[in-house]
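Minutes, project check-in
Item: structure for the 464-residue chain
Input as provided by the requester:
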Amino acid sequence: MKIKYSNLLLGILLPITYLHAEATVALTPPDAKPGECYAKVVLPAKYETIEEKVMIKEPSESISIVPAEYDTVKAEVEAIPETHKLIPIPATYKETVETITVKPAILSWKSSLDKDALPINPTLLTAIASNGVDTLNAKPGDCFREYYSPRKFKKVSEEILVQAEHNETAVLPPEFETVEKTIIIKPAYKKLVDVPAVYEEVEEKVLIAPEKTMWKKGQNPAQKLSGATGEIMCLVKVPAKYKTIKKRVLKEPATTRIEEVPAETKTIEIKKLLSDAQLRQTPVDAVYITAEKTELEQKPQFAWYSSKNKVGDTLKFSGQQVCLVEEPAETIEVTKMIEDHPASVKSEVVPATSEMIETQELVAEAKVTKTPVEAEYKTIAKKKKVTDEHIGWKRILCQTNMSKEIIAELQSALNNKGYEAGDPDGLLGRGTRNALDKFQRENSLATGGITYETLKALGIQLNH
């Protein structure tokens, strides 16, 4: 079943996936030269093959019999005394199949139990543990959800002061009489008069921007490939800029001259104060109104509960969920030979015989010799991850350094290696992009653009 995520939830969860990878990628490609284009592409994880020695047959012993020794004696005695015959019984083995783990099971926290669920930020797990959820003892398949109780409000009545107790003040205006007075409104003074400078115009060429290189975003011709980031940076050369300007050059400097300016007077009517203004204050009582206010009684309460537990009707699911998911271990089966019954010796009695013949006199009893047999081992190959998949800069072909001839050569190289890119028409269509992406993934190359690494793997040589 597919799950539709809201834009807000995707905005929160998707950066968690590439947070670590993006943190290590520079803002611009390193050591680039003018005319080169780079893109952020997906670099696949790298593995190395290691060998492990596995015992397929345990150590044991082989048994051999040293026979008894006799001397010949001419006498009327027992020809052959009673002896014991030792019969070796070899060890028997049986086959057993042993399962060897080449990749252990991995436990990880994700947003759900679905196969394509996104990983959980460790900061969120720390917050969940601090809220009383025992994440350390959780079992695979356990899920925890965040619930909240909505905030509550209450209404209260409050008496509000709208006008404080105060005194009203009345102003009694001052009294005046009108009289005449001559005043100097502008005293005599000496004035400096500017004589402006004289200029002439000339033209001059001025450097306004020196020659430089700068990064510009390019368009990735393979940007529809799975895994492409769409970010392409091209280092281009920007020529110097000049501007012709007109300048005013001083021909005669400015000067000044002094002029005498007489004083200016005026006869005006003024008011003479007879009595100053006075204040009269009258007390006024305070004024109140009764208002109904809404106050927060309880803030929203958040808590985490197991998805297996029932919660009350007052709690609502916030949409956040974490689940402990187990990725199964990878194993192989190795056939081993183990000892079923160890080697042994069976003893049989040989009865004595007597005759007047040459007899055999026992000199040394038969004995058993045991020889250690070393264990047998088999070497198996395992894959060990060296680096994780990550984002990085790779030099690519883009609009500034690509032609139809290069695309046609790319299509022919893909067709020759069994990746159907269609007719080599020099057009980067869907079939060519799909063949390029398949070739890159099956050969552990960076995906998301036509990288120079991919061209080299296809045997395509460029002149630039």
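Outcome recorded: The CA atoms of residues 261 and 327 lie 101 Å apart.
No further action items on this chain.
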